Amino acid sequence: MVTRDDYFEGSDAPFISISTSHFGLNAAFVRQAELEPGSRATVHTDADHRKIGFEFHADDRPSSFALSAASSDKKGQKRKALQCAARGTVRKYKWIESVARQPAKNRRFPPKKEGSKWVIQICPAFEERRARESTDISSEVAGIYRYLREGGEIVYIGRGPIKGRLHAPERKDWDFDVVEFSVVDDPDD
């Protein structure tokens, strides 16, 4: 039997998903937030905490995005999901783009109401990439990291000071070509 890597269970829970072109608002979230096609969203980003906030409104504010019906069908009926453009936002922020390129099941996040915004907390996704020999990583940078071979095979995943671990004497004989990492200042994050 072949297991599909692109399949994942549906969910009745509210979520916002990220793709390279759209922010998707599933039907459960659309009902919860009482959204309609034609509404608009102003998107706010907080890179330090990896949060994306969505402020929904009816007026045409500068830099806001129109919400439109998602185009896919489900069991012959139009879904009640909505979406808004994300391409510019995704391209602008590496920490969002790295999540948008993950498998679909890893790009869905439960929104929480914070004041006038609905906010999603996204995961660190190894958005920084350097050659093993790189010297441009500050010794103060800490977070999560992974070592990869040239073909993309993951050799090791860890957390801590990136440069210190990368150039540790006990790792000089390890076989990897690239380090990918996310800066995470607070270990609880």
Number of helices: 4
Terminal CA distance reads: 38 Å
Radius of gyration: 19 Å
* Biggest sheet character: 5 strands, antiparallel
| β-sheet strand percentage | 35-45%
Biggest sheet strand order reads: 6-9-2-1-10
Counting helices, strands and paired strands, the structural category is mainly beta
Tell how many strands the DSSP assignment holds: 16
Shape: elongated
Low-confidence stretches: none
Summed over residues and divided by their number, the pLDDT gives a mean of 88
Assembly type of the chains comes to single chain
SSE string:
EEHEEEEEEEHHEEEEEEHE
Q: Give the fraction of residues assigned to helices.
A: 10-25%
Summarize the structure.
The protein is mainly beta and 189 residues long.
Give an overview of the whole structure.
This protein has 189 residues and is mostly beta strands. The chain contains four helices and 16 strands. Strand 11 (112-114) and strand 12 (117-121) form a beta hairpin. The longest helix is centred in the N-terminal third of the chain and has 7 residues, at 27-33.
Write the layout of secondary structure elements.
Elements: E1 16-18, E2 22-25, H1 27-33, E3 40-46, E4 51-57, E5 65-66, E6 68-69, E7 73-74, E8 77-78, E9 82-85, H2 87-92, H3 94-100, E10 108-109, E11 112-114, E12 117-121, E13 128-131, E14 142-148, E15 154-161, H4 162-166, E16 178-183
Antiparallel strand pairs: 1-2, 1-10, 2-9, 3-4, 3-5, 4-12, 6-9, 7-8, 11-12, 13-16, 14-15, 14-16
